[in-house]
Fold this protein.
Amino acid sequence: MEEMPRRIDPATDRTAAAHLLGCRPDEVGYCPRCQGLTHRYGRRARPVCPACRAAEAQPADTSPGASKRLS
């Protein structure tokens, strides 16, 4: 099973964040959902950070009785 991406703390150095994200430091900005750092500007930018995208892509709970627990 793959490890979920982690949020990059906004206090992280932009150069280090850019290295992790595979972009230039001037293309790093804040994720509008969690305020972590992401490849926000420039070519192939993804304004929502990898951690928020991964959380959004998680499948819903489909185990037996899941709909009963939600009620």
